[in-house]
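Board notes (copied after class):
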Amino acid sequence: MKQEAMDNSEESYISCLSDDCLLSIVSKLQSESDRNAFGLTCKNWFKVRNVARKSVVFHFSYNPKVYKEHAQCLAKILARSPYLKLISLAGLTELPDSALYEVGSSGTSLMSLSLYCCSGITDDGLAQVSFRCPNLVIVELYRCINITDVGLESLSQGCHALKSLNIGYCTAISDRGISSIFRNCRNISALIISYCRGVSGVGFRGCPSALSYLEAESCMLSPEGMLDIVSGGGLEYLNLYNLKSSAGLDSLGRVSSLTKLRFLNLRMCRYLTDDSVVAIASSCPLIEEWSLVVCHGVHLPGWSAIGLYSNKLRILHVNRCRNLCDQGLQALKDGCMRLEVLHINGCGKITNTGLALFSIARPSVKRMMDEAMSIGPPIEDLFRL
C-alpha cells in the first residue's frame, strides 16, 4: 500500500497479490516501533486513515497455505473501515457467511459489493448484507453457487436502489428469483443471468423499461420466456450467445419489438431462421453491432434483409456462417452503408472473387479474420461506481 495514494486519492485499494502482503500490513501497524515512528497509537492511525478509505479490493489467487490467514486479515480490515462505498472480494471461494457481518458494518455508505466466485456464501449471508446495506446499487454474485431464489428475494427486499446485478453461473436461481428482483428493484438497468439454466424467461414478465442491458449466454429460454424478456421494451444490449431451446423452435423473432436495440449478440444461435433475421432487421433500425457467428440458419433472404434495413450497422460478425454465399455478401455490399468493420472467416460458400468484389466496392470497410466472443461496450463500465 502506498501512503501517498491514501493521502491524495479518495479511493484506496488493498490487494492480496502476495502471500504475506496483508499479514505484514496488520502486524506492522500493531507493533510498538511503527506506533512510535508515526507518533500515533495504532488505534488512532487506523481511525484517521479509515475515515478517508472508500474502497477495499481483494484480488485473491487461491493458495491453501495462506488462505485462512488472509481471510482473518480481511475481517480485521473490514471491521476498522466503517465507511466503505465499495467492497470487492475475488476468489475467496471458502469465504463463510460470518465474514459478511463485517461487510454489513459499512451500512448505508456501501454502494457496490462484489462476491465474485465466493462460492461459500449462502442465502443467509446475502440476507444480512442486504438488510444492513440498503443503498447497494451494484452487486456481483458470479459463481456463487449456493445463492438461491431465497437469497435474491432478500436482496430485492432490502436493496430497492439496485441497478446492476451479476448472477452468472448461479445455477440454483430460477424465474422466481428473477421475478422478485423486477418486482422490488424498478431501477435495475443491467442484469447478467448467463448459464442460469433454471431460468426460462417468464420471470421477466413486467420487467421495467429501465432494463437496458441483458446477458443470457447459454440459457434455456422458452418461447413464452422470450416474449417476457422483451416486454419492458428498453433493452439496448442483448446477448443471447449459444441460446438453448427446449422446444427446438426459433423464438428470436420476438427481439424485433426492441426498437431501442443497438447491440445484438446471436453467436451460435443454431435455431435462428431467416424469418427472425428479417423481422429483427426491419424493426430494429438502431442496431450498430450484430453478431451472427455460426448461425447456419441464415440464408440469402436474411442477408438481403440486413443489407436492406440495417442502415446504422457499423460492425457485423459473420464468421463460420455456412450459408453466407457470394450473393449474400453482395447484398451486404449494396446495403449497410455505415458498415465499418466486417468480421468474416471460415464461410465456405464465399469465393475469393466475391471477397475481391466486396473490397473493391467498399474499400473503407475493414475486413477482420478474428472471431470475437463478445461485442458492444465493456461490461466493466456497468459495474463501476
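Comment from the instructor: The radius of gyration is 25 Å. The chain has two domains: 1-199, 249-371.
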